[in-house]
Design a protein that fits this description.
The chain is α+β, with helices and mostly antiparallel strands. The protein is 42% helix and 22% strand. A hairpin with a 5-residue loop joins strand 3 and strand 4. Pfam families: HTH_11, WYL. InterPro entries: CBASS_pafABC_assoc_protein (IPR051534), HTH_11 (IPR013196), WH-like_DNA-bd_sf (IPR036388), WH_DNA-bd_sf (IPR036390), WYL_dom (IPR026881).
């Protein structure tokens, strides 16, 4: 294992632990000596990693860490580029810009040799054959999901029937030709899927819903024995 690979493995090990973890345990996980571990932690801290702790106490990686100029494998770079290219083709405008910004940040900290690999990646995404049909700003939905806040929406189903709903949104699915907003519907007392191109009005009520997003996502997944995400009628 090269030094850069070892440092990346150490970062990944720290990310897996949500509480302080001893140096001895980290060294055992990585198959290195405790002296090497202390040296690697010091190197990561010097590169900007927010690692807190000390020998005998334990270490934890605080959130918000900026990527240092570490090595990616060729396969990892291919996966990154494929994902970014898919988002740039099939996501909505703000997400496309965010993907481009994120890719630029990653490219800025890569060594020159890896920048060439990134720019010369040969995995391509097929052409986009449709235009965005939403009349509402999906940023409103993403913000509500992130903050665990209720949404009020006006919806038109496939038969042309209009309804107003208050939902607890917790997921937004991006498919090649449609996008689906998933939430708990207060009117129907059940999980519902809404095609975003059929939402005619969308308002963030700025009121927290009573469950955690992760809990709702887990409960919803348990109901999805036949995952087709059929929009609400």
């Amino acid at each position: 294992m090269t030094r850069s690979e070892r440092l990346l493995s150490l970062l990944q090990a720290l990310r897996r632990h949500k509480r302080p973890v001893s140096g001895a345990r980290l060294a055992e996980e990585l198959g290195i000596s405790i002296r090497t571990l202390y040296r690697d932690i010091a190197s990561l801290q010097a590169q900007g990693a927010s690692i807190e702790g000390e020998p005998g106490v334990g270490y934890i990686l605080r959130p918000g860490f900026m990527l240092p100029p570490l090595m990616f494998s060729q396969t990892e770079l291919e996966a990154l580029m494929l994902g970014f290219r898919w988002v740039s083709k099939f996501a909505d405008g703000p997400m496309t810009k965010a993907a481009s910004d994120a890719l630029a940040k990653i490219a800025a900290v890569l060594p020159e040799s890896l920048k060439d690999e990134l720019e010369g990646n040969a995995l391509l995404v097929g052409p986009r054959t449709f235009k965005d049909a939403e009349t509402v700003d999906l940023k409103i939905a993403r913000t509500a999901i992130r903050n665990e806040q209720k949404l009020r929406l006006a919806y038109v189903d496939a038969s042309g029937n209009h309804s107003d709903r208050t939902i607890w949104p917790f997921a937004l699915g991006y498919f090649q030709k449609v996008r689906i907003l998933v939430g708990w519907c207060e009117e129907r007392k059940d999980f519902r899927h809404f095609r975003t191109d059929r939402i005619t009005a969308l308002t963030n009520l700025e009121e927290r819903y009573p469950k955690r997003r992760a809990t709702m996502l887990r409960e919803w997944r348990e109901t999805q024995t036949d995952v087709r995400y059929v929009p609400d009628s």
